[in-house]
Amino acid sequence: MPTPQPSRRSVGLAPAHPSPGVLNIGEVLRELAAEFPQVTASKIRFLEEKGLISPQRTRAGYRKYAPTDVERLRFVLALQRDQYLPLKVIKDYVDAIDRGERPESLPGGMSLSPRMVSDQLARELSSHARRLTAETLAAEAKAPRRLVDDLISFGLIAPVEGRFDEHALKVTQACVQLESHGIEPRHLRPFRAAADRELGLVERVVAPVASRRDVASKARAAETAREISELCLNLHSALVYSQIARMDS
């Protein structure tokens, strides 16, 4: 008997198409294509940045998606599509599952089927929720503790309730490489200021929609903010690379 597909009223976290091993991002897109034809690699990376999934990485830095990552993506995408829930609400719900809790339902009535929330799955999902201490952050980034302290001091990373997330890890890893070129955290304060200015620009654009109280408006505001941020990053890269290209001319 075929495994039931997630519906618009009940979405599970167990694999609908069990797959041995891991998938790359192209294979994940193919897994999701039938139900979510509009999803893109950029969207998946955005959900990773928001802490909804945390795929493992190869030594070369390529993402490796486990079956639980794919089903977690399917669950999150269904909630966005069917109920227009903000990512924060979805993340709080999935984080509760990570902690071993059994939340009964989300706003709008969507819930997890009890058969799909086994203790084993809860442990697997919990293993993907990355919350690092300063010591484990330094170890994973292969950074001296001094560098981590400097990054905190200059506002480039900041703990939340004493822990650091995947974004802090990425910042630290980048700064390890930059330091090998003689670029120290104190030189990187303009990046923090530029990021804050960009965020202020995005917030002003989406403010009229974000100020509405309904969850659909908040979800649309978050999606618009993501799109604008990606455009800003593309613009920044193009401007920098155009100047670098002149060094060869």
UniProtKB/TrEMBL annotation:
Keywords: DNA-binding
InterPro entries: DNA-bd_dom_put_sf (IPR009061), MerR-type_HTH_dom (IPR000551), MerR_fam (IPR047057)
A Pfam family recorded for this sequence: MerR_1
Residues in coiled coil: none
Residues of the HTH merR-type domain: 33-96
DNA-binding recorded as keyword: yes
Entry keyword annotation includes DNA-binding: yes
Taxonomic superkingdom: Bacteria
Any one GO MF annotation of this record: DNA binding
Annotated PROSITE patterns: HTH_MERR_2
PANTHER family: HTH MERR-TYPE DOMAIN-CONTAINING PROTEIN, REDOX-CYCLING DRUG-SENSING TRANSCRIPTIONAL ACTIVATOR SOXR
Protein name per the record: MerR family transcriptional regulator
Organism from which the protein derives: Arthrobacter crusticola
